[in-house]
Amino acid sequence: MTAVPEETQRGRGGPDSSEITGPSLFAGAALMLSEPLSILMGVSGIAQDTVFSAHRYAYRFDLAPWGWIHLVVGVGLAIAGLGVLTNKSWGRGAGIVAAGISLITQFMFVPSIRCGPFP
Question: Which of 91, 89, 106 is nearest to 29 (CA)?
Fold first, then answer.
């Protein structure tokens, strides 16, 4: 059996490869698309905009703290997305953590979204 040279193995997207693969490209793009939405929700919550309203439910916070939480999560998503897209070693782990935190905060924030007619 002939051994494949190490240079050939690297070109196939292995762990030492500098090129980004399809799943990583998708994950980085998804993080980068979620980031501005989270930041916009955060700014809207901090500004006490009329898009959101505070209701009584188990995870009730005022809108300003929710806004700051979403702003910080949005910045974290941007950093993690850039890490994934630039193929940094910490990017995948940071992406998984940022996406998980974003998912949890989005779920907890759903009752604050105003469902009635806007003024």
Answer: 91
At 56-115, the pLDDT tens digits run: 656 566 777 888 888 999 999 999 999 999 999 899 899 999 999 988 888 877 666 655
**Cβ neighbours of residue 39 closer than 8 Å, sequence gap 6 or more:** 70, 71, 74, 75, 78
pTM over 0.85, yes/no: no
Backbone angles phi, psi at 11, to 5 degrees: -70, -5
3-state SS, one letter per residue, for 27-74:
HHHHHHHHHHHHHHHHHHHHCCCCCECCCCCCCCCCHHHHHHHHHHHH
Residue appearing with tokens 């005022």: 62
Cβ contacts of residue 99 below 8 Å, gap of 6+? Answer: 30, 31, 34, 77, 80
